[in-house]
Write a structure and sequence with these properties.
Layout: H1 3-29, H2 34-48, H3 69-83, H4 88-112, H5 117-128, H6 131-140, H7 144-160, H8 164-177, H9 185-222, H10 224-232, H11 244-250, H12 255-262, H13 265-283, H14 288-301, H15 317-321, H16 323-342, H17 351-401
Region (Disordered): 408-442
Protein name: Glycosyltransferase family 39 protein
Organism: Streptomyces lichenis
């Protein structure tokens, strides 16, 4: 690294470390939401049974245990540390705070490879100081930030470091902590194929498949019903203070349709988000981290479940998309999270908080549009240009075969219309490519 790059890296790392320490101080000094207590109950249940059979274990006085298998092992380790008198409240929030630190460094590395040093530093600093992440990681905890970190690590390892085997491991880790980054996994497979062909795809698949078998294999074999019901089919709580379900209820949509949207309908939404991610990665595989950021933002935008910690899903990734996107979302939604958490009522929003939450949703929608619009314009322009040259080449070849000018002057035209190429003098009207008829009249 040059001197300026070294100073920039030290600045980003220093601010990220300071933000991590501030979040841990917040975690140590606050009680946190009910999830802190619930996670202690989950950890005790896992220690009493094991990280696999916990999915079949009745858990009275606790919500559904909807966390993937790797989270179970993490909770088992934390329970052992708690038995050694490590305070539980900061301990359960430590993984999310540490994940944010790593994600900030990933944001810097990803943006630096695609933009100026100044832009990379500003985006990384914005991610480090993002109010949404301060509140969700330092106060709430949970594992959302950890899953996001592994998703961006997979994209960075695959594209920027050209390490498909390690990227496959990270891809499995991200969905083994929390299932939300599942929307980004198909695009990682597409990018592996586009970047390195069969060899890269094979290495990525081996890495992800081997770790998947190790982590997911035992519960899939021993307690498939519990894993399917608790994790794979979990539709979120019944709260609706954010997103399209909240808007549907505000608009008076009949409840059966709302429940259909939250039930079978949300799988269609997930499939559509996956398709968008694959399209982005297939067209520009070098920008796979950008595609991961877009899919996570789309997932929250179209989510049929509400949870304050869910607001962390796109927070860091929006700085990969652009500086103003990350700042606009972080400030707007950060104000909502701070208000909700300061009142210690994350599942009971006031009317004012829901109004500002709707504003935050609109800001997120604008960020997603700003990310997808350039890709759509590039795709349309490429398709139109391709049609122009294909039409010109085809008509020139036909003209040459009929004895006309081989490369007639070509006039630009709109995609879908037929270019005007002078026909040979002896050509008849029905010999034109658009009017020629066969003996059967077709």
């Amino acid at each position: 690294m040059s001197g300026s790059e070294r100073r920039a890296w030290l600045l980003v790392a220093g601010v990220a470390t300071a933000a991590f320490l501030a979040k841990m101080a917040l975690a140590a000094q606050t009680r946190g939401p009910a999830d802190v207590r619930f996670f202690w109950g989950f950890a005790r249940a896992i220690a009493r049974t094991d990280p696999v059979r916990v999915y079949a274990e009745p858990l009275p006085w606790l919500p559904v245990y909807n966390h993937p298998p790797l989270a179970s092992w993490m909770l088992l380790v934390m329970e052992k540390l708690a038995q050694l008198h490590v305070p539980w409240r900061p301990l359960i929030r430590f993984p999310a705070c540490l994940a944010d630190l790593v994600t900030v460094l990933l944001v810097y590395a990803i943006v630096r490879r695609r933009a100026s040093l100044r832009t990379a530093v500003l985006c990384a600093l914005g991610a480090a100081l993002c109010p949404v992440l301060v509140a969700t990681s330092g106060y709430h905890g949970n594992t959302d930030s950890v899953a996001v970190m592994f998703a961006f690590a997979a994209a960075w390892l695959l594209v920027d470091r050209r390490m498909p085997l390690a990227a496959g491991l990270a891809a499995t880790l991200c969905v083994s902590v929390k299932l939300i980054p599942i929307v980004a996994v198909p695009l990682l497979f597409a990018a592996a194929w586009r970047l390195g062909g069969r060899r890269a795809l094979a290495r990525f698949t081996v890495g992800s498949g081997a770790l998947f078998a190790l982590v997911w294999g035992p519960p899939l074999l021993l307690v498939p019903g519990g894993l399917k019901a608790n994790v794979l089919e979990y539709a979120g709580g019944n709260f609706s203070f954010w997103g399209i379900v909240r808007f549907a209820r505000w608009g008076g949509v009949p409840e059966p349709y709302v429940q259909l949207l939250r039930g079978e309908g949300h799988w269609l939404i997930v499939a559509a988000i996956m398709a968008v991610g694959v399209w982005l990665a297939w067209r520009r595989p070098a920008d796979t981290p950008y595609a991961v950021a877009v899919t996570l933002a789309l997932l929250l935008l179209l989510s049929t479940a509400s949870g304050v910690q869910y607001l962390a899903w796109p927070a860091a990734g929006l700085f990969v998309i652009g500086l103003w996107q990350g700042l606009a979302y972080g400030i707007t939604v950060g104000a909502v999270t701070a208000s909700v958490y300061s009142g210690q009522r994350p599942v009971h929003w006031t009317t004012t908080e829901m109004a500002f939450g709707a504003l935050g949703w609109a800001v997120l929608a604008a960020c997603v549009v700003s990310a997808l619009l350039p890709a759509a314009v590039r795709a349309a322009a490429a398709a139109g240009l391709r049609d122009v040259f294909c039409d010109a080449l085809r008509d020139a070849v036909r003209a040459r075969r009929r004895g006309g000018t081989a490369w007639a002057p070509y006039e630009p035209h709109l995609p879908g219309s037929h270019p005007r190429v002078p026909a040979p003098p002896h050509a008849r009207a029905h010999d034109h490519p658009l009017t020629r008829t066969s003996p059967t009249g077709e």
